Amino acid sequence: MTWPLLLLTCAPAALVAQPGPVPAAGQQEPAPAEPSEPPRAVYLMSPNDQVVIRAQNVEEISERPFRIDTEGYLNLPVVGRIRAAGLTVEQLEALLVDRLRIFILNPEVVVSVIETGRQQDVANPVFLVGAFKVPGVYSLGSRPETLSEILMKTGGLQPAANRRVRIIRRAEQGRLDLPNATDSSDGKTTYAEILLTATGELANPAENIVAKPFDALVAAKTEPIYVTGEVSRTGAFPLEDREFFTATQILAMAGAAPTADIANARVLRAVNDGAQRAEIPVNLQDVLQGRANDFPLMANDVLYIPRKKTGTGAIFARLGTVAISGVVTSIIWVTLGRR
Asked: How far, in Å, CA of 98 to CA of 113, rounded?
């Protein structure tokens, strides 16, 4: 999984509070109610802010930093010049999706603010970026706030978010008090992963540490599972809050065509940081008949269902499926069981 690069060199800007209702003339103003939770902060982008855009199938703008110019505009390849200052992250994402619809079908865009130009506007900021329902920059209150209190302000995770969230802390704020904390290669930060529930709460209460200024919580989107070949419905199948689907579950959702050769299905799994894919043979015919274990499909896997072969070619094709698939499946299930 690729985590966003955070260059937290400055603190962010503009927190906007929504005004309350004004009582009518002659009407007594009611006593203020006790707030049920802290007010939610909304971050508005400003000139000199730097953002990273992640857009599937748009390499010209994806995974590259762009700075908002002094007039408040972003100048982007493919998309062109767009007004960004004064928008929330979600509004900019929606604007980019609308522009990209001209070029690709169903574009997906995630925007993260990685640097901001106005330090004085937010005291003790905490950065929440990525696939939260309400990402942005939040100010720590006058008393210490825990991770669970910070997470309450985000409204939880988006449906496609990975539930393993990374927390990053600057070295000058001390080391993260978490078992899996790791120092960055340059020694400037420490980072660790925490597991959230489907509702966006901490799965392990022991990980509910106190947040420090300039902490960053990063929620990445989970890649879907892709299906192609002799099926009724090709395309992407989102994992949502699951860690995996089995191959037969995906096959049931995609629907095998009459010409499908499910005994010679193959899984293409990314290796070498996604630069290549390993091919794993999976005999789904044996799985359905109870002669083999089902195969777990992870995020970004591709399930390929070939067309049935006829004549002598079918005999030679079966010789290539050996026992490797069963061994690989057993190893993957053992690995999943240890998590």
From this structure: 20
- Dist CA 80 CA 271 (whole Å): 34
- 41 assigned to some structural domain: no
Give the global pTM: 0.47
Q: How many domains does the chain have?
A: 2
Q: Both 135 and 178 in a single domain?
A: yes
Q: Are residues 259 and 203 part of one domain?
A: no
Last residue of a domain, one of 179, 203, 219: 219
DSSP string, 199-261: TS-BS-GGG-PBP-TT-EEEEPBPP-EEEEESBSS-EEE--TT-S-EEHHHHHHHH-B-TTB-
Reply yes or no on whether the pLDDT at 240 is more than 90.
no
Q: Please give the Cα distance from 148 to 195 (Å, whole number).
A: 12
288 pLDDT band (50/70/90 cuts)? very high
- C-alpha 237/C-alpha 112 separation (Å) is 25
Q: Which range marks the domain in which residue 196 is found? A: 50-219
How far apart CA 135 and CA 41 sit, in angstroms, is: 10
Look at residue 112 and give its three-state secondary structure. strand
Tokens at residue 311, please?
Answer: 């004549």
**Token pair listed for 260:** 């499908």
